[in-house]
Amino acid sequence: MENAAGLMARVRERDAGAFETLYDTHHRLVYGIAYRILGDTAAAEDVTQSVFLKIWSNPERFVDGNFSGWIARVARNQSVDVLRRRSPAAAELSESIPDGDWLEERAFSALDAEAVRNAVATLPAEQREPIELGFFGGITHAAIAQRTGIPLGTIKTRIRTGLRRLREALEQTVIA
Amino acid sequence: MTAHDAMLDDVAVYALGALPADEAAAVRAHLATCAECTREYQRLKPAVDAVAYSAEACADRAAGAVVPNPRLKARIMNTIRPQAIPRLANVGEMRAVRPIVWPAYAVAAACLAIALITSVFNISLNEQLHQSQLQVAQFATHARLLNRQVALQREELADLTSSDSQHYAVEGGEVVRRGNRLYIAMQTMAMPPRGKVYQAWIMRPGATRMTPSVTFMPDRGGIAVLPIPVQGTKVVEVAVSMEPDGGSKQPTSKPTFVVKLT
Protein backbone atom coordinates (compact mmCIF):
# COMPACT_ATOMS: atom_id res chain seq x y z
CA MET A 1 0.00 0.00 0.00
CA GLU A 2 1.18 3.51 -0.82
CA ASN A 3 2.48 5.35 2.23
CA ALA A 4 0.71 8.34 3.73
CA ALA A 5 3.21 10.87 2.37
CA GLY A 6 2.58 9.59 -1.15
CA LEU A 7 -1.15 9.72 -0.63
CA MET A 8 -0.89 13.29 0.61
CA ALA A 9 1.06 14.22 -2.52
CA ARG A 10 -1.89 12.93 -4.56
CA VAL A 11 -4.36 14.74 -2.32
CA ARG A 12 -2.56 17.95 -3.26
CA GLU A 13 -3.43 17.06 -6.85
CA ARG A 14 -7.09 16.75 -5.86
CA ASP A 15 -7.16 12.96 -5.96
CA ALA A 16 -10.29 11.80 -4.16
CA GLY A 17 -9.14 8.18 -4.17
CA ALA A 18 -5.99 9.01 -2.23
CA PHE A 19 -8.00 11.05 0.22
CA GLU A 20 -10.43 8.18 0.76
CA THR A 21 -7.52 5.83 1.47
CA LEU A 22 -6.14 8.26 4.04
CA TYR A 23 -9.55 8.47 5.65
CA ASP A 24 -9.89 4.70 5.81
CA THR A 25 -6.49 4.26 7.44
CA HIS A 26 -6.58 7.17 9.89
CA HIS A 27 -10.19 8.04 10.77
CA ARG A 28 -10.26 5.75 13.81
CA LEU A 29 -7.17 7.47 15.23
CA VAL A 30 -8.69 10.91 14.75
CA TYR A 31 -12.07 9.87 16.05
CA GLY A 32 -10.53 8.04 19.02
CA ILE A 33 -8.56 11.08 20.12
CA ALA A 34 -11.54 13.39 19.71
CA TYR A 35 -13.85 11.04 21.58
CA ARG A 36 -11.30 10.59 24.39
CA ILE A 37 -10.99 14.36 24.80
CA LEU A 38 -14.59 15.44 24.21
CA GLY A 39 -16.44 12.44 25.60
CA ASP A 40 -19.34 12.36 23.14
CA THR A 41 -19.77 10.79 19.74
CA ALA A 42 -21.42 13.71 17.95
CA ALA A 43 -18.63 16.12 18.90
CA ALA A 44 -16.00 13.51 18.01
CA GLU A 45 -17.57 13.05 14.58
CA ASP A 46 -17.65 16.80 14.07
CA VAL A 47 -13.96 17.01 14.90
CA THR A 48 -13.18 14.06 12.63
CA GLN A 49 -15.05 15.67 9.75
CA SER A 50 -13.37 19.01 10.40
CA VAL A 51 -9.88 17.46 10.51
CA PHE A 52 -10.31 15.58 7.22
CA LEU A 53 -11.92 18.49 5.41
CA LYS A 54 -8.99 20.66 6.47
CA ILE A 55 -6.61 18.04 5.09
CA TRP A 56 -8.48 18.21 1.79
CA SER A 57 -8.73 21.99 1.67
CA ASN A 58 -5.22 22.69 2.94
CA PRO A 59 -2.98 19.66 2.35
CA GLU A 60 0.13 21.83 2.30
CA ARG A 61 -0.01 21.97 6.09
CA PHE A 62 1.52 18.51 6.13
CA VAL A 63 5.06 18.94 4.92
CA ASP A 64 6.89 15.72 5.65
CA GLY A 65 7.57 13.10 8.30
CA ASN A 66 5.22 10.97 10.35
CA PHE A 67 1.72 11.54 9.02
CA SER A 68 0.07 9.61 11.84
CA GLY A 69 1.80 11.72 14.48
CA TRP A 70 0.92 14.87 12.59
CA ILE A 71 -2.76 14.07 12.16
CA ALA A 72 -2.96 12.95 15.80
CA ARG A 73 -1.69 16.35 16.95
CA VAL A 74 -4.11 18.11 14.60
CA ALA A 75 -6.97 16.05 16.02
CA ARG A 76 -5.87 16.73 19.59
CA ASN A 77 -5.56 20.48 19.02
CA GLN A 78 -8.90 20.64 17.23
CA SER A 79 -10.56 18.78 20.08
CA VAL A 80 -8.97 21.04 22.70
CA ASP A 81 -10.26 24.02 20.71
CA VAL A 82 -13.75 22.59 21.06
CA LEU A 83 -13.15 22.17 24.80
CA ARG A 84 -11.91 25.73 25.02
CA ARG A 85 -15.10 27.04 23.41
CA ARG A 86 -17.19 24.91 25.75
CA SER A 87 -15.38 25.39 29.05
CA PRO A 88 -15.99 28.23 31.42
CA ALA A 89 -12.51 27.58 32.74
CA ALA A 90 -10.69 28.17 29.46
CA ALA A 91 -7.69 29.56 31.29
CA GLU A 92 -6.87 26.04 32.44
CA LEU A 93 -6.47 24.82 28.86
CA SER A 94 -3.05 24.50 27.42
CA GLU A 95 -1.65 25.80 24.18
CA SER A 96 -1.92 23.61 21.12
CA ILE A 97 0.76 21.04 20.47
CA PRO A 98 3.06 22.28 17.70
CA ASP A 99 2.00 20.45 14.56
CA GLY A 100 4.36 22.16 12.15
CA ASP A 101 7.52 20.34 13.14
CA TRP A 102 8.47 16.84 12.11
CA LEU A 103 11.26 15.94 14.42
CA GLU A 104 9.89 12.55 15.34
CA GLU A 105 11.65 9.49 14.07
CA ARG A 106 10.09 7.56 11.23
CA ALA A 107 10.72 4.29 13.10
CA PHE A 108 7.76 5.13 15.31
CA SER A 109 5.39 5.95 12.49
CA ALA A 110 4.03 2.47 12.01
CA LEU A 111 3.46 1.40 15.60
CA ASP A 112 0.50 -0.82 16.27
CA ALA A 113 -2.15 0.88 18.42
CA GLU A 114 -2.49 -2.17 20.63
CA ALA A 115 1.26 -2.23 21.31
CA VAL A 116 1.18 1.47 22.15
CA ARG A 117 -1.77 1.00 24.51
CA ASN A 118 0.14 -1.76 26.25
CA ALA A 119 3.22 0.45 26.53
CA VAL A 120 1.18 3.29 28.02
CA ALA A 121 -0.49 0.86 30.41
CA THR A 122 2.88 -0.22 31.79
CA LEU A 123 3.58 3.29 33.05
CA PRO A 124 3.08 3.79 36.77
CA ALA A 125 -0.21 5.54 37.45
CA GLU A 126 1.59 8.54 38.98
CA GLN A 127 3.25 9.15 35.60
CA ARG A 128 0.48 7.97 33.28
CA GLU A 129 -2.27 10.09 34.84
CA PRO A 130 -0.62 13.53 34.44
CA ILE A 131 0.43 12.59 30.91
CA GLU A 132 -3.11 11.57 29.94
CA LEU A 133 -4.58 14.59 31.65
CA GLY A 134 -2.20 16.86 29.79
CA PHE A 135 -2.81 15.27 26.42
CA PHE A 136 -6.44 14.21 26.48
CA GLY A 137 -7.60 16.68 29.12
CA GLY A 138 -6.01 19.52 27.24
CA ILE A 139 -5.23 21.29 30.51
CA THR A 140 -2.07 22.97 31.66
CA HIS A 141 0.47 21.54 34.08
CA ALA A 142 -0.83 23.94 36.71
CA ALA A 143 -4.38 22.66 36.24
CA ILE A 144 -3.10 19.09 36.49
CA ALA A 145 -1.33 19.94 39.74
CA GLN A 146 -4.44 21.59 41.06
CA ARG A 147 -6.70 18.67 40.14
CA THR A 148 -4.36 16.03 41.51
CA GLY A 149 -3.13 17.99 44.51
CA ILE A 150 0.47 17.28 43.56
CA PRO A 151 3.09 20.05 43.47
CA LEU A 152 3.69 21.58 40.03
CA GLY A 153 7.40 20.72 40.00
CA THR A 154 6.58 17.10 40.75
CA ILE A 155 3.99 16.99 37.97
CA LYS A 156 6.54 18.29 35.47
CA THR A 157 9.15 15.77 36.55
CA ARG A 158 6.65 12.90 36.44
CA ILE A 159 5.54 13.93 32.96
CA ARG A 160 9.13 13.99 31.74
CA THR A 161 10.02 10.73 33.49
CA GLY A 162 6.88 9.06 32.15
CA LEU A 163 7.53 10.21 28.58
CA ARG A 164 11.14 9.00 28.73
CA ARG A 165 10.01 5.62 30.03
CA LEU A 166 7.35 5.40 27.33
CA ARG A 167 9.97 6.23 24.75
CA GLU A 168 12.17 3.40 26.03
CA ALA A 169 9.21 1.00 25.96
CA LEU A 170 8.45 2.01 22.38
CA GLU A 171 12.07 1.48 21.40
CA GLN A 172 11.80 -2.05 22.75
CA THR A 173 8.63 -2.52 20.70
CA VAL A 174 10.29 -1.24 17.54
CA ILE A 175 13.40 -3.37 18.10
CA ALA A 176 11.29 -6.44 18.82
CA MET B 1 17.78 20.42 40.52
CA THR B 2 19.53 22.95 38.37
CA ALA B 3 17.76 25.61 36.36
CA HIS B 4 18.54 23.67 33.21
CA ASP B 5 17.08 20.47 34.67
CA ALA B 6 13.93 22.48 35.31
CA MET B 7 14.00 23.62 31.69
CA LEU B 8 14.26 19.99 30.54
CA ASP B 9 11.10 19.27 32.55
CA ASP B 10 9.40 22.21 30.85
CA VAL B 11 10.49 20.83 27.48
CA ALA B 12 8.70 17.55 28.32
CA VAL B 13 5.52 19.40 29.30
CA TYR B 14 5.82 21.51 26.13
CA ALA B 15 6.10 18.38 24.03
CA LEU B 16 2.95 17.07 25.70
CA GLY B 17 1.16 20.32 24.89
CA ALA B 18 0.38 21.09 28.52
CA LEU B 19 1.99 24.52 28.88
CA PRO B 20 0.14 27.81 28.88
CA ALA B 21 0.88 30.04 25.90
CA ASP B 22 3.42 32.33 27.59
CA GLU B 23 5.53 29.47 28.97
CA ALA B 24 5.29 27.60 25.64
CA ALA B 25 6.70 30.65 23.86
CA ALA B 26 9.61 30.78 26.32
CA VAL B 27 10.41 27.10 25.73
CA ARG B 28 10.28 27.57 21.95
CA ALA B 29 12.75 30.42 22.24
CA HIS B 30 15.02 28.29 24.40
CA LEU B 31 14.87 25.34 22.00
CA ALA B 32 16.16 27.58 19.25
CA THR B 33 19.41 28.06 21.16
CA CYS B 34 19.91 24.89 23.23
CA ALA B 35 21.07 21.70 21.53
CA GLU B 36 20.59 19.52 24.64
CA CYS B 37 16.97 20.58 25.10
CA THR B 38 16.31 20.16 21.36
CA ARG B 39 17.61 16.58 21.57
CA GLU B 40 15.37 15.96 24.59
CA TYR B 41 12.39 17.37 22.70
CA GLN B 42 13.13 15.12 19.73
CA ARG B 43 13.39 12.09 22.02
CA LEU B 44 10.09 12.75 23.78
CA LYS B 45 7.97 13.70 20.75
CA PRO B 46 7.40 10.10 19.59
CA ALA B 47 6.29 9.23 23.11
CA VAL B 48 3.67 11.98 22.95
CA ASP B 49 2.51 10.69 19.56
CA ALA B 50 2.28 7.24 21.13
CA VAL B 51 -0.04 8.60 23.77
CA ALA B 52 -2.22 9.86 20.91
CA TYR B 53 -2.10 6.50 19.15
CA SER B 54 -3.31 4.79 22.30
CA ALA B 55 -6.64 6.56 21.77
CA GLU B 56 -7.19 5.00 18.37
CA ALA B 57 -10.68 3.59 18.32
CA CYS B 58 -10.91 -0.16 18.17
CA ALA B 59 -12.67 -1.37 15.03
CA ASP B 60 -14.48 -4.17 16.83
CA ARG B 61 -17.94 -2.93 17.81
CA ALA B 62 -18.67 -6.29 19.45
CA ALA B 63 -15.85 -5.60 21.87
CA GLY B 64 -17.52 -2.36 22.87
CA ALA B 65 -15.47 -0.14 20.62
CA VAL B 66 -16.67 3.38 19.98
CA VAL B 67 -16.41 3.94 16.27
CA PRO B 68 -17.69 6.74 14.06
CA ASN B 69 -20.94 6.39 12.20
CA PRO B 70 -20.30 4.94 8.71
CA ARG B 71 -22.35 7.80 7.25
CA LEU B 72 -19.60 10.17 8.39
CA LYS B 73 -17.37 8.97 5.58
CA ALA B 74 -20.16 9.41 3.04
CA ARG B 75 -20.73 12.98 4.23
CA ILE B 76 -17.04 13.82 3.95
CA MET B 77 -16.61 12.19 0.55
CA ASN B 78 -19.73 13.91 -0.81
CA THR B 79 -18.23 17.22 0.26
CA ILE B 80 -14.85 16.77 -1.37
CA ARG B 81 -15.78 14.88 -4.57
CA PRO B 82 -17.05 17.92 -6.52
CA GLN B 83 -13.59 19.45 -6.09
CA ALA B 84 -11.72 16.30 -7.06
CA ILE B 85 -9.89 15.98 -10.36
CA PRO B 86 -10.02 12.56 -12.02
CA ARG B 87 -6.58 11.01 -12.26
CA LEU B 88 -5.30 11.01 -15.85
CA ALA B 89 -3.79 7.55 -15.38
CA ASN B 90 -7.16 6.19 -14.34
CA VAL B 91 -8.87 7.76 -17.33
CA GLY B 92 -6.23 6.25 -19.58
CA GLU B 93 -6.68 2.84 -18.03
CA MET B 94 -10.43 3.06 -18.45
CA ARG B 95 -10.03 3.93 -22.12
CA ALA B 96 -7.49 1.17 -22.54
CA VAL B 97 -9.78 -1.55 -21.21
CA ARG B 98 -13.01 -0.25 -22.75
CA PRO B 99 -14.11 -2.77 -25.38
CA ILE B 100 -14.84 -1.48 -28.90
CA VAL B 101 -18.10 -2.92 -30.22
CA TRP B 102 -18.52 -2.84 -34.03
CA PRO B 103 -21.79 -3.59 -35.82
CA ALA B 104 -21.75 -6.94 -37.63
CA TYR B 105 -22.15 -5.38 -41.09
CA ALA B 106 -19.19 -3.11 -40.43
CA VAL B 107 -17.08 -6.08 -39.39
CA ALA B 108 -18.12 -7.99 -42.54
CA ALA B 109 -17.37 -4.99 -44.80
CA ALA B 110 -14.02 -4.49 -43.14
CA CYS B 111 -13.13 -8.17 -43.60
CA LEU B 112 -14.18 -8.07 -47.29
CA ALA B 113 -12.17 -4.93 -47.90
CA ILE B 114 -9.13 -6.44 -46.22
CA ALA B 115 -9.52 -9.64 -48.30
CA LEU B 116 -9.78 -7.68 -51.58
CA ILE B 117 -6.85 -5.48 -50.78
CA THR B 118 -4.82 -8.51 -49.79
CA SER B 119 -5.74 -10.38 -53.02
CA VAL B 120 -4.89 -7.43 -55.28
CA PHE B 121 -1.71 -6.91 -53.40
CA ASN B 122 -0.82 -10.60 -53.78
CA ILE B 123 -1.53 -10.56 -57.53
CA SER B 124 0.58 -7.48 -57.94
CA LEU B 125 3.37 -9.06 -55.94
CA ASN B 126 3.16 -12.28 -58.00
CA GLU B 127 3.38 -10.32 -61.25
CA GLN B 128 6.34 -8.40 -59.96
CA LEU B 129 7.95 -11.63 -58.87
CA HIS B 130 7.32 -13.23 -62.29
CA GLN B 131 8.81 -10.21 -64.12
CA SER B 132 11.78 -10.24 -61.82
CA GLN B 133 12.35 -13.96 -62.40
CA LEU B 134 12.11 -13.40 -66.18
CA GLN B 135 14.64 -10.59 -66.04
CA VAL B 136 16.96 -12.72 -63.95
CA ALA B 137 16.71 -15.54 -66.52
CA GLN B 138 17.40 -13.12 -69.40
CA PHE B 139 20.37 -11.66 -67.60
CA ALA B 140 21.66 -15.15 -66.92
CA THR B 141 21.32 -16.11 -70.60
CA HIS B 142 22.98 -12.90 -71.67
CA ALA B 143 25.78 -13.52 -69.23
CA ARG B 144 26.26 -17.05 -70.60
CA LEU B 145 26.40 -15.68 -74.17
CA LEU B 146 28.89 -13.04 -73.17
CA ASN B 147 31.00 -15.64 -71.46
CA ARG B 148 30.78 -17.81 -74.56
CA GLN B 149 31.80 -14.88 -76.78
CA VAL B 150 34.67 -14.01 -74.52
CA ALA B 151 35.81 -17.61 -74.58
CA LEU B 152 35.60 -17.74 -78.40
CA GLN B 153 37.43 -14.44 -78.76
CA ARG B 154 40.15 -15.71 -76.45
CA GLU B 155 40.34 -18.86 -78.56
CA GLU B 156 40.45 -16.84 -81.80
CA LEU B 157 43.13 -14.58 -80.39
CA ALA B 158 45.17 -17.57 -79.34
CA ASP B 159 44.78 -19.21 -82.78
CA LEU B 160 45.70 -16.03 -84.67
CA THR B 161 48.80 -15.33 -82.62
CA SER B 162 50.05 -18.82 -81.93
CA SER B 163 53.43 -19.79 -83.34
CA ASP B 164 52.05 -23.09 -84.60
CA SER B 165 49.33 -21.38 -86.72
CA GLN B 166 49.59 -21.40 -90.49
CA HIS B 167 49.29 -17.96 -92.07
CA TYR B 168 48.35 -17.48 -95.72
CA ALA B 169 48.82 -13.87 -96.85
CA VAL B 170 46.21 -12.26 -99.10
CA GLU B 171 45.68 -8.68 -100.29
CA GLY B 172 44.71 -6.62 -97.23
CA GLY B 173 44.98 -9.47 -94.74
CA GLU B 174 45.49 -13.21 -94.28
CA VAL B 175 43.88 -16.60 -93.89
CA VAL B 176 44.94 -18.43 -90.73
CA ARG B 177 44.60 -22.09 -90.00
CA ARG B 178 45.36 -23.74 -86.71
CA GLY B 179 44.45 -27.35 -86.41
CA ASN B 180 40.84 -27.80 -87.46
CA ARG B 181 40.00 -24.09 -87.17
CA LEU B 182 40.12 -21.69 -90.11
CA TYR B 183 39.94 -17.86 -90.02
CA ILE B 184 39.82 -14.91 -92.39
CA ALA B 185 41.62 -11.92 -90.79
CA MET B 186 41.40 -8.73 -92.91
CA GLN B 187 43.02 -5.43 -91.85
CA THR B 188 42.32 -3.10 -94.77
CA MET B 189 39.13 -4.13 -96.45
CA ALA B 190 37.01 -1.67 -98.37
CA MET B 191 33.40 -1.26 -97.34
CA PRO B 192 31.15 -2.87 -100.00
CA PRO B 193 28.52 -0.68 -101.72
CA ARG B 194 24.92 -0.61 -100.47
CA GLY B 195 23.20 -3.97 -101.08
CA LYS B 196 26.45 -5.85 -101.26
CA VAL B 197 28.33 -8.00 -98.76
CA TYR B 198 31.48 -10.02 -98.77
CA GLN B 199 31.10 -13.78 -98.97
CA ALA B 200 33.69 -16.50 -98.22
CA TRP B 201 34.07 -19.56 -100.44
CA ILE B 202 35.87 -22.80 -99.72
CA MET B 203 37.21 -25.60 -101.89
CA ARG B 204 37.19 -29.06 -100.41
CA PRO B 205 39.83 -31.63 -101.42
CA GLY B 206 38.91 -33.26 -104.77
CA ALA B 207 36.07 -30.78 -105.45
CA THR B 208 35.83 -28.94 -108.76
CA ARG B 209 33.68 -26.05 -107.60
CA MET B 210 33.79 -23.63 -104.65
CA THR B 211 31.29 -24.07 -101.84
CA PRO B 212 29.54 -20.97 -100.45
CA SER B 213 30.33 -20.07 -96.85
CA VAL B 214 29.54 -17.14 -94.54
CA THR B 215 28.85 -13.55 -95.56
CA PHE B 216 30.40 -10.71 -93.61
CA MET B 217 31.09 -6.98 -93.43
CA PRO B 218 34.27 -5.23 -92.29
CA ASP B 219 34.01 -2.57 -89.60
CA ARG B 220 34.52 1.10 -90.37
CA GLY B 221 38.27 0.64 -89.97
CA GLY B 222 38.33 -2.03 -92.67
CA ILE B 223 38.93 -4.85 -90.18
CA ALA B 224 37.15 -8.17 -90.36
CA VAL B 225 38.12 -11.23 -88.35
CA LEU B 226 35.84 -14.23 -88.66
CA PRO B 227 36.02 -17.96 -88.21
CA ILE B 228 34.91 -20.05 -91.17
CA PRO B 229 32.52 -22.73 -89.98
CA VAL B 230 34.18 -25.73 -91.46
CA GLN B 231 36.70 -28.32 -90.46
CA GLY B 232 39.87 -26.49 -91.42
CA THR B 233 41.89 -29.55 -92.33
CA LYS B 234 39.38 -30.41 -95.07
CA VAL B 235 39.75 -27.11 -96.98
CA VAL B 236 42.35 -26.66 -99.69
CA GLU B 237 41.39 -23.25 -101.00
CA VAL B 238 39.66 -20.12 -99.69
CA ALA B 239 38.23 -17.21 -101.68
CA VAL B 240 36.22 -14.04 -100.92
CA SER B 241 33.99 -12.16 -103.37
CA MET B 242 31.54 -9.32 -103.21
CA GLU B 243 27.98 -10.62 -103.49
CA PRO B 244 24.44 -9.36 -103.18
CA ASP B 245 23.15 -8.99 -99.60
CA GLY B 246 22.13 -12.42 -98.38
CA GLY B 247 24.88 -14.21 -100.27
CA SER B 248 25.01 -16.30 -103.44
CA LYS B 249 25.19 -19.97 -104.31
CA GLN B 250 27.72 -19.25 -107.04
CA PRO B 251 30.21 -16.38 -107.18
CA THR B 252 28.76 -13.52 -109.20
CA SER B 253 31.82 -11.28 -109.18
CA LYS B 254 35.56 -11.49 -109.54
CA PRO B 255 37.00 -12.76 -106.23
CA THR B 256 38.71 -10.25 -103.96
CA PHE B 257 41.25 -12.97 -103.27
CA VAL B 258 41.81 -16.65 -103.76
CA VAL B 259 44.43 -18.49 -101.72
CA LYS B 260 45.51 -22.11 -101.73
CA LEU B 261 46.13 -23.64 -98.30
CA THR B 262 49.16 -25.71 -99.07
How would you describe this structure to a colleague?
The complex is a heterodimer of chains A (176) and B (262). Chain A is mainly α. Chain A has helices spanning 4-12, 16-38, 41-57, 67-86, 113-121, 125-136, 141-148, 152-175. The longest helix of chain A has 24 residues, at 152-175. The longest helix of chain B is centred in the middle third of the chain and has 58 residues, at 104-161. Chain B is built from six helices and eight strands. Chain B has helices at residues 3-16, 21-31, 35-53, 70-80, 88-97, 104-161; strands spanning 166-170, 173-178, 181-186, 196-203, 211-216, 224-228, 237-244, 257-260. Chain B has a four-stranded antiparallel β-sheet with strand order 1-2-3-6. With 262 residues, chain B is an alpha+beta fold. At the A-B interface, helix 2, helix 3, helix 4, helix 5 and helix 6 of A face helix 1, helix 2, helix 3 and helix 4 of B.
Précis, in short:
The complex is a heterodimer of chains A (176) and B (262). Chain A is an all-alpha fold and 176 residues long.
Number of helices in the DSSP assignment of chain B: 6
- The value of Rg of chain A in angstroms is 17 Å
End-to-end separation of chain B in angstroms reads 150 Å
In terms of structural class, how would the helical and strand content of chain A be classed? mainly alpha
How much helix is in the residues of chain A? 55-70%
The geometry of chain B reads as rod-shaped
Largest sheet of chain B: 4 strands, antiparallel
Count of DSSP strands of chain A: 0
How much of the sequence of chain A is in beta strands? under 5%
Strand content of chain B: 15-25%
Write down the overall mean pLDDT of chain A. Answer: 85
State the order of secondary-structure elements of chain B, H for helix, E for strand: HHHHHHEEEEEEEE
